[in-house]
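WARN retry 2 of 3 for item q-0093 after timeout on previous attempt; input resubmitted unchanged.
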Amino acid sequence: MNRAYETNGDTAGNYSLRGKVFHRLREDILNGKYKENEELKEVAIGQELGVSRTPVREAFRQLELEGLIQIIPNKGAYVTGITPKDVHDIYMIRSTLEGMCARLATEHITPEQLEELEENVYLASFHADKGHMEQMAELDNRFHHILYASCDSKMLENLLEDFHQYVIRIRRQTLSTSRGKKSNEEHRKIMEAIKAHDADAAERLANRHIINAYENIVHMTEKEENEENAENE
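OK item q-0093 returned
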C-alpha cells in the first residue's frame, strides 16, 4: 500500500496524520464529492489516502463533532446535510468574525494586499458586466482570502478560512449575476474603508456584507421552493 500520509509513528506525527485525513475528508464533503446520506467506508478511504483505519476512524469522530457526518453504531458513518439552522449559524458567526477581520485590516494591511483588493474589485466589476459567473465566484473567493490574510492574525485567518469552506458549498447553488454585482459593490466599500483606515466603517460594512449574503440565500431558497410548489400543483 502506498502510505502517502504515514509518519514515523511518534505522537506529533500521529496528530499530524489525523489532521491531514480530517481536513482532506472535510474538504471532500464540502466540495460535494460525498453526497448527503452517503456512507463513508473506513477501509476504502484508508486505501485511497494510503493510511491505516485508525486515523480515518479518528477523523470520523472529529467530523461528527462538526456535524458533517453521523456515526451510527454497528452500521457506519454517513454524510449529513447542512440544515437551515446550520446555514444561519454559519453566516451569523462569520459576519462577526469578518467584521473583526476588516477592522484589524485597517491597521495591518500591506500596500501589496491593498493593491490586490483594488484590482480584485476592478476585475470583478468587469466580469459582472459580462455575466461571467465562474470568474465572479473565483474573484469573490479571492477577495475574502486577501482580506483574511491582511488582518495579521493567523488564528482569525484560519477560522475564517474554515467558515468560508462551508460558505462555498452553500453559495454554489445561490449565486446570481445580480447578487454578484451587489456583492462586488459591497467589497468596494469595504476596501475603501480599509484604505481610509476607518475601522468602524470597515467592521460595519464587512459585517453587513455577510448578512446580505445570508439574506440572499434565504430569498433564493424560498424562490426555488415556491417554484417547485407551483410546478407540483
